[in-house]
């Protein structure tokens, strides 16, 4: 369901967030990345030609200072939560985003470079062609 992670990354970029990646980059490439990664799909119903369920996408926000990571994570969460879903439905992708819900960001860890990592999960209600 790369269409879903790509859509969420697009939501962040459209909101002006820089250094958004779908694969965690080296610290040499980006010192302050926002990483969007797939967290799974849970089917809730199946109908002719499609299934509906929840696609989970996790965002990791990395910054040198904890307060900067926290603030950036809350800004990213607000951008995803308030994004219009229909504009991210790409024809031919096989997935339609029907709704978006997010968790509040929380501190995750200090990474191996000593940077602060805050994270949150977006759960998108989707219809997937089968």
The biggest sheet, with number of strands, parallel, antiparallel or mixed sense and barrel status, is: 6 strands, mixed
Order of SSEs: HEEEHEEE
User: How many distinct helices?
Assistant: 2
Secondary-structure-based class equals alpha+beta
Distance between the termini: 12 Å
- Write down the overall mean pLDDT: 92
| Portion in helices | 10-25%
- Strand proportion, as a percent range, falls in 35-45%
Low-confidence stretches: none
Overview in brief:
The protein is α+β, with helices and mostly antiparallel strands and 130 residues long. It has helices at 2-14, 66-82; strands spanning 20-21, 34-47, 50-63, 95-102, 106-110, 116-129. The mean pLDDT is 92.
Structure description:
The protein is α+β, with helices and mostly antiparallel strands and 130 residues long. 23% of the residues lie in helices and 44% in strands. It has two helices and six strands; from the N terminus they run H-E-E-E-H-E-E-E. It has helices at 2-14, 66-82, and strands at residues 20-21, 34-47, 50-63, 95-102, 106-110, 116-129. Strands 1, 2, 3, 4, 5 and 6 form a six-stranded mixed β-sheet that branches. The relative contact order is 0.24. The model has no long low-confidence stretch (mean pLDDT 92).
